[in-house]
Amino acid sequence: METFAVLFRLTSRNIGRNGANMPLSTFAEAHAQSGDKPMSQHASPGSTRRELLRAALSGSALGLALFAPAIAFATAAPAVTIENFSPAGKSLGTQRVPKIVHAEDEWRRMLAPEAFEVTRHADTETPFTGTYWNQHGDGLYRCICCATALFDSRTKFDSGTGWPSFYQPISHDNVVEISDSTFGMVRTAVSCKRCDGHLGHVFDDGPKPTGLRYCMNSAALKFNPRASV
Ligand SMILES: [Zn+2]
Fold first, then answer.
1. Which of 1, 49, 64, 158 is most buried, with most CB under 10 Å away?
2. What integer pLDDT is reported at residue 75 of this predicted model?
3. What residue numbers bound the domain in which 62 lies?
4. How far apart are CA 144 and CA 129, in angstroms?
5. Which of 49-53, 107-111, 160-164 has the least mean pLDDT?
6. Is 1's pLDDT higher than 50?
7. Vertex 213, ends 211 and 215: CA angle to 5°?
8. Per the residue annotation, which of 143, 146, 192, 215 is the catalytic one?
9. Is residue 138 located within the same domain as residue 203?
10. Residues 49 and 105 reside in one and the same domain
């Protein structure tokens, strides 16, 4: 931990010098504008669905009945491969699972307001206000939306930014990183692979061994203390 303490200080200085984080004034804009941004939507297999619909609509009542199950299948959530982890943080291997997809109103009902805005509208919580920026417990951080394991506390470090920070995800199978040029900055956004929930951003000013800083929102995470097995 002493090594980390040094790294934390170095990292904090780097962060300040680089200005990698969004300034507070920009946060106010982000909050103000977040309502205008469209919700992250899953691509549906539109062409397949259209073909099936055309075929069904051009047929008889019997044809419609026959196609109904196929239409339902075609609109089912696509599958993704994620890595499962035990409550002790041990890998249980990869698994092909359906994506978690809900309509915006459903997500709004399921999530606390801040979790909804962060995960579904890519909002950013105000630094030093979240549940986990100063959390030092041993355990796993899972997606608030779908419980997919995202980060292990053993990779968490004090970045000095006011957001929970990790030098790597628990598995690269469980997150998606895409370029994000909103708010006049070019950043890399990180989201949950299974439900597309926005988690935060990753920067290249983190500590060893990766040199990366996964700057997450507490509101997107759920901490579970490590179990013994
Ligand atoms: Zn998720």
1. 158
2. 60
3. 43-76
4. 17
5. 49-53
6. no
7. 175
8. 215
9. yes
10. no
Q: How far is the CA of 88 from the centre of ligand 1 (A)?
A: 19
pLDDT band at 77 (very low <50, low <70, confident <90, very high): confident
Bridge partners, residue 151, by sequence: 141
Phi-psi bin for 46: left (phi > 0), alpha (psi -120 to 50), beta? alpha
pLDDT(9) > 90 = no
Residues 122 and 203 in one domain: yes
184/215 same-domain check: yes
Among the candidates 57, 76, 95, a domain finishes at 76
66 plus 138 within the same structural domain: no
215: annotated active-site residue: yes
Do 100 and 201 belong together in one domain? Answer: yes
> Is residue 170 pLDDT above 50, yes or no?
yes
Mean pLDDT of 202-219: 98
Distance CA 106, CA 209 (A): 40
Whether residue 51 sits in one domain with residue 139: no
CA of 14 to the centre of ligand 1 (A): 30
> Residue 228: its pLDDT value, please?
87
pLDDT for the residue 76? 75
Number of structural domains in the chain: 2
Tell whether 178 and 66 lie within a shared domain. Answer: no
Distance 17 CA to ligand 1 centre (A): 33
- Cis peptide leading into residue 209 (ω within 30°): yes
Q: How far is the CA of 50 from the centre of ligand 1 (A)?
A: 29
Q: Helix, strand, coil: what percent of the chain each, to 5?
A: 35, 25, 40
Given a cut of 80, is residue 68 above it in pLDDT?
Answer: no
